[in-house]
Amino acid sequence: MVGGYTEGMMKILLLEDDRILSDSLKELLELEGYSVDTAYRGTEVFERTFEQVYDLYILDVNVPDVDGFDVLRSLKEAGDTTPAIYITALTDINSISKGFEIGAEDYIKKPFDPEELLIRIKSKYTPSEEHRICLGELCYDPESRVLYRGAERVALGEVQLNLFHLLITHLNSLVESYDLMDTLEQPNANALRVNIAKLKSKLGIEITNIRGQGYMIEKV
Q: Of the residues 43, 57, 105, 220, which has the fewest C-beta atoms closer than 10 A?
């Protein structure tokens, strides 16, 4: 364990209705130390994400009940900031464009070499020890924008994640109020105070208010 993060314990949810492919990808990823849950229907994703926070979604598109596009759209509309990779046989430019517009970070066309998927996960989504910022039990990777408490991922809504990102990447330095308010849907001082209070409560950290100037997180 380094900085509260257990290397390889990244939690992945795989949506793939081809059970042979699903099993082979799950086996490959688990051999690399990742924790993988599987879903074969779109509705199962909603059940899994209600109970568990994931670090990465790997989503097929043509699956029963709710297709992969609508699955990710619903998750994003609910404030889920988990990155997603589409794996699909759909190769037309409209489908690729749609996937990125919904909020996917990557798109792999079937058939593909499973090692390619593994390389992309390692290079783009596994938290980097080199850039990790730790504060007590909390460890944050500013590149992947993933926050852990110990080995468990902490889920923050988009607004609070943006606030925390600004504050933690300026650790021990003042972040001016107007910069923080730029992250809010309705930028005003009262909304900023409310969201800072929620962030402090959820993470159990101290965020110092420098009256008339801004806020800062200090590492004791």
A: 220
